[in-house]
Design brief:
Layout (H helix, E strand, L loop, with lengths): L7 H5 L14 H7 L4 H11 L4 H30 L8 H20 L3 H20 L2 H6 L3
Length: about 140
Amino acid sequence: MYTPAAPLHQQAKYRQPRVRCEGAQRLTGFVWFHIFNCTELLQFRKHCGGVSTGDRTMMKLAIETIGWIAAAIMLAAYVMLTTGRLSGRSNFYHWLNILSGAGFIINSGWNGAYPSASINVVWVAIGLYGVFGRRPADAANSTV
């Protein structure tokens, strides 16, 4: 007879956390180090008492704000490119894409949208190549 494994949140309460902490003040470093490991995060919150509702609300607001600013930057870059105010080879255009991609990586990664976060890593890499990987003659000819 098949018996399914316990959900992650139930498995987490039986394992010992890998970190020792004095409280929620170490949460930030732990979350960024283990952002992709849900089990470890659940263990940490249980072990350290979690974070206050106000801290979670502020962090969520900050992450959402970063995502909306990234969306506005990406949309502005596309509008300026389409209307001819910006060249697709200009450093400014590439920096707008790098900044918006970084904002989407933060927002998508935090919210668990890993395919979106992954494609934005590639987006940022392409933008960095556009700024730093081109030949000097190409960079000199690119204008805003």
